[in-house]
Amino acid sequence: MTQSRISMPVVSELDLIFQDHLKLDNFWDQQQLVSEPNEPKKIISFVQRIPTIDPLAFLQNFNHSNSLHFYWENPRKQEAVIACGVTQKLLIDSRDRFKIAQNFIQKCLKKTVRKGETSITGAGPHLFCTFTFFPDADKSYSPFPAATVFLPRLQLIKKNKSCLLIVNVPVNYADNSKLIVEEIKQKINSIDWSLQQKLNSEINECFASNYNSISEDSEYFKSVVTSALNSIAIDEFSKIVLAYATDVVSPVPFRLIKSLDNLRQRHPDCYIFSTSNGRDNNFIGASPERLVSIQNKQLVTDALAGSAPRGKTTAEDVQLANLLLKNRKEKREHQAVSDFLIERLRQLDLKPQQLPLQLLQLSNIQHLWTPIYAHLSHDLDPLEIVAQLHPTPAVAGVSTEIACEQIRRYEKFDRSLYAAPLGWVDYQGNSEFIVGIRSALIEGNRARLYAGAGIVSGSNPEKEFAEIQLKLQSLLKALV
Ligand SMILES: C=C(O[C@H]1C=CC=C(C(=O)O)[C@@H]1O)C(=O)O
């Protein structure tokens, strides 16, 4: 059996933590926190260091199918952020969704008062956001609104082995602080710390062979690529990213935690994510693509486009990598993304700098990759940046507007959260958003898997379809 990755606290250890930090007398100053009857309720955001816990064990303990969650883990970077339950939320169905989300976040953060171990870097409330690819997602197909923003009840931040628990509790002038402290304490005490051992001891079942899959017509996809190539030839647009969806039905309901565990083991260099709408629709995946990350006013974004499979031997792998780095069609596909990102950041009055072109080698596929940096010299809300960058030509095309029009015409399904920005913003303006590619929408025993490929002049319909199959197969293998 794989060795357990968690340390199991004994109750007395937790009690000690509470004695130090939750002693009621010192916990918070009632005078400072109570709201006047007509004021909006204040929210205490209580930060507490807790013993190391596996992020999936945390999700398993606190996720309820009728509430929202957000899970995100980068195994290689040993980072995770998980949110369960809701203290404040806003569902937005408007084209102005980024601005509305930004205002909501600012209002929410104004009401929060940080307590507990607040001196630890990054120790504070985060708001979690998901946006659909198109601002007007088709409601009959997309179970998610154009934007969802929420301040969770419980949040875990994990960096290496250090874990912070954040509990966000609204306080009314009439609330009894004793009860709130008890609630926090009970939540921590109720964690089943042994879950990771159970996950590890399970046989890595894969029902892939039992699935009934209803794929879109592959010939239709290839004909659409050919039609797009004709439009590119007459300069209607220069790039388009076309996606393909496969629906699978399993004899038993999909298991969220086990599927995520498989994804993180198979794709340790990706961002593994899951989010729900509180109605049993989970959107999960393993995305290599970061839309934007902001830490202490340093912005990073990734131009990621242009792909090749990994080789079966080292020699074949090196050969495929070298071919990818030299391939003019793949480089054109990539350049469209880096040019777009640089231009869009300049429009925000930033001075972006790009690193030389490199390879991002993942377990099943390799990509051309250009990391782009910028210093935020003036105040810019993270969501203004997300609005400016989404959708990049890694998921839409060039020009954005025409490519999006054509995507709506060609694709027979609604993208919903596929290829859309998913992420968080914290109380200090730090933020991270990924692009929800290599993803699946799960409901009970049904899953819709999505993957796309960039089409530029020189693309070949057969090869683009093979690239999509490569991406989908690796996702399918993780679903159980
Ligand atoms: C749109 C997807 O991938 C994008 C990201 C990296 C490489 C891509 C490509 O080579 O086509 C795509 O632009 C997807 O996997 O669904």
UniProtKB/TrEMBL annotation:
Domain Chorismate-utilising enzyme C-terminal residues, every copy: 219-471
Alphabetically ordered keywords of this record: Isomerase
Keyword hit for Transmembrane helix: no
Catalytic reactions of this protein: chorismate = isochorismate
Pfam families referenced in this protein's UniProt entry, alphabetically: Chorismate_bind
Record-linked InterPro entries: ADC_synthase, Chorismate_C, IsoChor_synthase
Molecular functions (GO terms): isochorismate synthase activity
EC number, UniProt record: 5.4.4.2
Record's keyword annotation contains Isomerase: yes
Protein family per UniProt: Belongs to the isochorismate synthase family.
Entry protein name: isochorismate synthase
Organism: Stanieria cyanosphaera (strain ATCC 29371 / PCC 7437)
Lineage summary: Bacteria, Bacillati, Cyanobacteriota, Cyanophyceae, Pleurocapsales
